[in-house]
Amino acid sequence: MADIQIDPDITGNDASQSNRIGPIWTSPTVAYLICASATAVTYRKTTDGGQTWGASVTIGSGLAVGGPDCWYDQWTPGDTGTLIHVVFSVTANFDVIYRSLDTATDTLGTAYVVQPFASGSGVGMLSIVKARGGNLYVSGYSADNLMAFRRSVDGGVTWTSRAALSFTNNTTKARFEFHPGNEADNQDIWCLMHLNSTTTLVLKVYDNSADSWSETTISTGISLNLNKQMAAATRRSDSHMIVVACDAAWNNTPNVKVWDVASGGIVAKANVGTMNYLLAVAPLIDEPTGAIYVFYGRGATGATDVSQYYRKSTDDGGSCGSE
Q1: In the chain, is it the N or the C terminus that has fewer CB atoms within a 10 Å radius of its CB?
Q2: Using 50, 70 and 90 to split pLDDT, how confident is the model at 218?
Q3: Residue 107 phi/psi, 5° resolution?
Q4: 1-38 burial: b if 16+ Cβ within 10 Å, else e
Q5: CA diameter of the chain
Q6: Do 124 and 65 meet the contact criterion of CB atoms below 8 Å apart?
Q7: H or E stretch covering 252
Q8: What is the DSSP letter of 74?
């Protein structure tokens, strides 16, 4: 089939590249995509499996300087809700804003301030997640410093500061994203984080009851130079996190590596392959069959000829099929 243009005005800045914007599939034919343009954070909807997309609907006005990032209720294992939780910051005021979209009625909720603007140029990358117990959590960074880690226990109406999420000894921006995790306490969450200065990929676990963080190394020697050279997906059947990351800069033929992360341990899976000029990776889990797809963009000679590919594993990451 031919490529289909969804939105002609999506910006290519790091803030919009760093985060989860969808598509969020609510049925085999209905999906939503969160978009960041030069004038607004918006969403578009398809009802025919992606063949056509509806008009742009504004979530927040202004150039997106932070996020957007989103989390769909049903990405959280066991959750049957219909909300897409969106967090973003725009030039209108630079506050970090939370707003929900109810996919059952296509209605936007009230916009609430997660964190007021303080100084600098606003927050860059943001991440949001809904824990299995229902709490919402948000954090982000600006000028190489993480913003406060915030929690909402009332569906995003009010937000309070919790123990800071830190990246000790990291001299440049940390890449990170939140996931529900499978800890015994269903309000605990996970943070997948890459530390540039130590070339380390780590799992940070937030203990909601103790209001504290712990850290476990997933892998060392992971040297990323692009935000989307790592990504993860939560498997709904067991709440494991399937992590994909590259072990070298995009132009140094990096290996694409995979890990299965659980509270009981971290298991390295088969490498997807070694790619020239690899710009992005993303895992997808086919829940009915358990198959793991790893999508990636790579070029043959440089960053100007990038095409999209995938490889599929049908044995829980033990091996990968052909490109």
Answers
A1: N
A2: very high
A3: -115, 140
A4: eeeeebeeebeeeebbbbbbbbbbebeeebbbbbbbbe
A5: 52
A6: yes
A7: none
A8: G
Asked if residue 242 lies in contact with residue 226, where contact means CB atoms within 8 angstroms, the answer is: no
The residue among 237, 245, 241 whose CA lies nearest residue 290 is 237
pLDDT in tens, 191-206: 998 877 778 889 999 9
**Cβ-based neighbour number of residue 66 at 10 Å:** 32
Percent of residues in the chain assigned helix, strand, coil, to nearest 5: 5, 45, 50
Give per-residue pLDDT as tens, 142-181: 655 667 899 999 999 999 999 988 765 554 556 789 999 9
CA pair distance 230, 282, nearest whole angstrom: 7
Alpha carbon distance 321, 293 (integer Å): 10
* Distance in angstroms between the alpha carbons of the first and the last residue of the chain: 18
For 4, 273, 281, the CA distances from 309, given in Å and listed in that order, are 17, 12, 10
Tokens of 5: 């243009």
Mean pLDDT of 14-26: 72
Whether the Cβ atoms of residue 21 and residue 32 lie closer than 8 Å to each other: no
Coil/strand/helix, residue 14? helix
Distance CA 319, CA 153 (A): 41
Contacts of 112 (CB under 8 A, 6+ apart): 97, 98, 99, 156, 157, 158, 159
